Amino acid sequence: MAVETVVFDLGGTLIEYAGTYATWPELETPGFLAAYGALAGNGRSLPPFELFCQAGFSHLPRMWRAATQREANLQVHGLLAAAWAEVGINHFTEGDLLAAAQAYGEAIQQQALVIEGAVAAVTAVKAAGYKVGLVSNTMFPGTMHQADMARFGLLDQFDATVFSADVNKWKPNADPFLHVLDALGMRAETAVYVGDDPASDVVGGRAAGLRTIYFPSSQRFHLPDGLKPDGQISSLGELLPLLASW
Fold first, then answer.
1. Those residues with Cβ within 8 angstroms of residue 246's Cβ, 6 or more apart along the chain or in another chain
2. Is it the case that residue 10 has pLDDT exceeding 80?
3. What's the whole-model pTM score?
4. Are residues 178 and 241 in the same domain?
5. Is residue 245's pLDDT more than 80?
6. Of 59, 86, 110, which residue sits at a domain end?
7. Does residue 217 surpass a pLDDT of 90?
8. How far apart are the first and last CA of the chain?
9. 63, exposed or middle or buried, with CB in 10 Å at 0-12, 13-18, 19+?
10. Which of 70, 87, 110 is the last residue of a domain?
11. Which residues lie closer than 8 Å to 131 by C-beta, 6 or more apart?
12. Residues of the domain holding 197
């Protein structure tokens, strides 16, 4: 069946959020630093930043895994609460944590860069008549990412977007993909998913019945033996010609 719908991943596929950090969760360091600064005012005595940051690093993979396994949603303020509890701080209010989460998100936004060819590729896909959607695994509010997409000239090209923390639906489960397809009014058989993380994007897209295209934009992820996407591109400029060839 012909492809009528193209759904993109966001981080690592269209926008790079890693800044100068090569690995996760270390790339979250600016966020933890900003959150710490937001809570260190008013004469508060806090444990050293390094202890707080390492607590965050220890909790984030566990909480991310729980989200992808449908055990619990993950949002930044919840991560911060867990990290502070780890170092013995339990007195911050929900308002405190939400303000710190906002500072965290803004710090991550400041290191965001649009990936080469992203705007041209998405614009070309839209102009070619495809429905265009997005599914992003993220602990941040979707409004934050939409602001980034608008800043880089991407947002207007999308017919529907799904951000995992907003709806508590996480890749590689099928439900976030089915959610965006429902919003688009399209069927999985007509859709392809483009992403940089095989474990989330190829596995997840396939679980939902979409074709998949692997785009290794960095060295963070590698295609495991035995996992074969329907297509692979080395640059986003190759996307539209690949779709046309199908």
1. 2, 3, 231
2. yes
3. 0.95
4. yes
5. yes
6. 110
7. no
8. 9
9. buried
10. 110
11. 4, 5, 6, 159, 184, 186
12. 5-17+113-245
